[in-house]
Amino acid sequence: MGPFNKVCYMTCMLRISRILRFAIFGLLVGTFGCTEKDAGGDGETDVGSEPVFDPVPARGGLTIRRVELNPSIGVDIAQDGEWVGASGRQGQIPRFRTAMARIFWGELPADWVPRKLIARFTVEKVGGEVVEFDNYRGPLMVENESDEGSFNDQFFVQLPAQHVEPGAKFQVQLMEGEIGYENIPEISPPSVALLDGTDYIGVEASPMETRVVIVPVQYTWNECVSDTATLTEEEKQGFTDLLAKSNPIEAAKVVWRETGIVRTTQIDDPPDLWGALQQIRAEDDPDPNVFYYALYDSCGGPFGTLGTAPTANIPPTKSSATARFASGKWHKEQNVTAWETFVHEIGHVQSNPHAPCGGAAGTDPGYPHEDANIGVWGFDIEPQKPGLFIYAPNTGKDYMSYCSPSWVSDYRWKKLFDHMRELTSWDYESAAPTPDAEGAIKLTGVVYDDGSQRWWVVDGLVADEVGHAMEPISSGSDATALSWPAVRSDVQDMEGSSFIQIQLGSEDDVEAILGSGLQFRLDGLDYAVDGASVEDLRRAKELHQP
What we know:
By secondary structure, the chain is an alpha+beta fold. The chain is built from seven helices and 29 strands. Strand 11 and strand 12 (224-227) form a beta hairpin. It is elongated, with a radius of gyration of 27 Å. The relative contact order is 0.13.
């Protein structure tokens, strides 16, 4: 996240308070429980006297106005009795992902008798199995107009992940929720979401995953002694959970590297770890769709620069693989802030600039909602725990902004979908491998806004599609042209700082730079590299001084 200032301080404090908001939302919505109909979620029996209550279709002519399915953002799948196709949807529904359905009823008939109803969501699976789900909290009293902002005037039905499958069809029908109304004549059409019968939920068939390696940092400097490898399993799981909720995917595959970075010199800012992180990535030689993230604990609070990424211009191509890395801080007492920073920085290397709110630099001119509003209702669903946390369209803020409460917008969801579908597809194909990096060497560095800089030599290829156009660099007073291609990009969340990569030709080039330094011009700017300060991190067995 961005440099510390008054705006960032307020943003950080708002993010910390998200935990309190979660608790409040949980109380507003209530503790929900959800079961399949045939698992006992549809009525009660008084032992020995009362008959088993068997709901009948709702009487009285109440219509279903809208059905929304919410895997993290609200997606309309039925409106006014008709199916909503792809062109009318706010986003995609990833396969095998827990989703929450919201059902809204139409105008109450003039002779409506207030009473309890059930919303029954039926899923017809591809293999022929039919599964029915009834709304949370049992029968709901219908006595007012249905209202998006009133959680007592809408039905909630949770669909478990295994039933959200490609090719599945659905129907929603209102049922009487108590005995005594079954003798009222039925009115045509019935109280169903789709008047023409079942239709497709519209679940995407493509596999969708996000793969990240978190590199822990063992840090010793003055009185600070920390090691992010020692986080609890719950703290580690928080990174996976929030990434999964924020991306239009079926699974977030986050693994923690067994060995990480050992640091015994001061870490001023997250980019100080990039040299070691790049070299680790080169040595691991991962698949091109894997993101790397260095996580360190500086024994401080959520202040200063919380996290950084080298660019927000990384296309979904294999040749851009080496640019898929970022770094950020861990705060044990404010773990939500660290999780959000992680998702934000990974968002940058998924080719996402900032959303316009909170003073963030380099904002996306195509972002459609004012003040980075998310534009739709956002649901934070905990499949393993009771509870539901909700973000309103005009109060929730896109997680690529500096504002809170942070969630994913419909714009971000759709933008990420195509990007992550392409990256995921590489795991399910027999296409050509990534470009061969054997023997490749690059000089990389960060030039900060105050003129200070840090340079290192690592193995690997320059991601030549990242940043500004590749161009030969010039060196010396006579501007002798060098054959080395170079690329510069803006460091995200550190306004005014640049990340530079230069592809070197041979070991002799390295020796020349380490011996006498390098002067060059790139993007119309002059740079001078002090050879004595350049660190050679190639093929390091232990990365003690990145």
